[in-house]
Amino acid sequence: MDEEVKNSNKGKVLTKYFTKTFLMGLLVLAVLWGLLLKMYGFELSISGWATMHREHNLLCLIDLFPLIVAGVATYLGRNAYYKISTLDKTLKSQSENVNKVAAFAEKIGKGEFKYEFTPFGEEDVLGKALIEMRNSLVLSSKNEEERSWIITSMAEVSEILRSNTELKKLSEEAIAFLTKKINAVQCAVYIVNDEDQ
Domain-by-domain residue ranges, the chain? Predict the structure, then answer.
């Protein structure tokens, strides 16, 4: 439907363009014929124009001037219309791409690294760079989480060891901590009793 409207508009524009250039060509032709009639001493009338045509057959080619001008102008107008239409499509596509890249960059800035984005082709250097940046940030974030987990866990284990002096209480606290820390369903610690064989 949208393409039909564009083609209809194109036809209207080109028809208007052809009509205007044809009428301007007729005006130029009328002035030219007036000058030629005066120059060659013919009467400034239709009969003078007809007499001049009978005596000089090649002057009939001048009568084609409005059609030639209108045809050339329409051809150039059609090419210009096509180029403008192509440029318009390219600009709209580029605008959409820039908006998508901007949305992706905004999501990365907010820490939403799971947002899906696909570069728009081999030439999309910015899109590829943003994907690389996101991947680096995801890896960095994961490494930071692991480091934080290790440091926190070591501090908690140190606190358990420091606060418990008896083996049974230490074992219970260690098992509870370990089960919770690694999200295990169940955990057990076995202590070798060297005294009671």
Answer: 2-98, 164-197
